[in-house]
Amino acid sequence: MKLDMLAIGAHPDDVELGCGATVAKEVANGKNVGIIDLTRGELGTRGTADTRKVEAENAASVLGVAFRLNMGFADAFFINDKAHQLAIIRMIRKYQPEIVLCNAIDDRHIDHAKGSKLVSDSCFLSGLLKIETKDEHGEVQQPWRPKFVYHYIQWKNLEPDIVVDVSGFVATKMKAVLAYETQFYSKNSNEPETPISSKNFTDSVLYRARDLGRLIGVEAGEGFNVERYPAVDSLFDLK
């Protein structure tokens, strides 16, 4: 399956929180989009790996993506080494995405920056001819390097390099986020409180989208950091 865009997150819910509206918009535009979670989020204070799996599947259904899979890396303890890179390279070569979206370059949770660098490095290495990988059928894979790697913004208010107009897709994003019933605010929950379980946090996801939209003159936006200068054919192409 050839993908237009592959969104990768260290944990189930990272993609929804960081770029859920962008994913939903591109799906609505007819793009082929997939999601990969690096870990099962098994060390999260609330819920379990099993509940997160069900919630992730429900959220993927809301977003309308072609598929969602989990790499099964160790939550909090995965590292950016050859074994993990090769595992990601196999996925990149299998699905051949034009664009890869991945975790924030700097954030409160250590897995986010680690996941960001792991995926970015793997995207580069995936284009090297002399790195040999095989698919699940034992067939040698061809090199593939995505054209663009964009890093979404998470807990920290990083300054974006580009902002995507996601007007009309924030409701879908929030529905996908709230599919993680164990993780976010619920007045009926008896789970321990965490930094993301407050109503203030859930509200902040919506506030950020509205604020980024305000800054570019639209209803809502999602911000991304880039690894190289964005290029346009003409200044008139910029909104």
What does it look like?
By secondary structure, this protein is of the alpha/beta class. It has one domain (3-226): LmbE-like (Rossmann fold, 3-Layer(aba) Sandwich), CATH 3.40.50. It is 36% helix and 16% strand. The chain is built from six helices and seven strands, in the order βαβαβαβαββααβ. A seven-stranded mixed sheet has the order 3-2-1-4-5-7-6, sandwiched between helices. Helix 4 links the parallel strand 4 and strand 5 (148-152). Helix 1 crosses helix 5 (170-177), helix 2 (49-63) packs antiparallel against helix 5 (170-177) and helix 3 crosses helix 4. The model has no long low-confidence stretch (mean pLDDT 97). GO terms for molecular function: deacetylase activity; hydrolase activity, acting on carbon-nitrogen (but not peptide) bonds, in linear amides. InterPro entries: Bacillithiol_biosynth_BshB1, GlcNAc_PI_deacetylase-related, LmbE-like_dom_sf. One of its GO terms (biological process) is bacillithiol biosynthetic process.
Tell me the layout of helices and strands:
Layout lengths: L4 E5 L4 H15 L4 E7 L9 H15 L3 E7 L8 H14 L3 E4 L7 H16 L22 E5 L9 E4 L4 H8 L21 H18 L4 E6 L13
Parallel strand pairs: 1-2, 1-4, 2-3, 4-5
Antiparallel strand pairs: 5-7, 6-7
Helix pairs in contact: 1-5, 2-5, 3-4
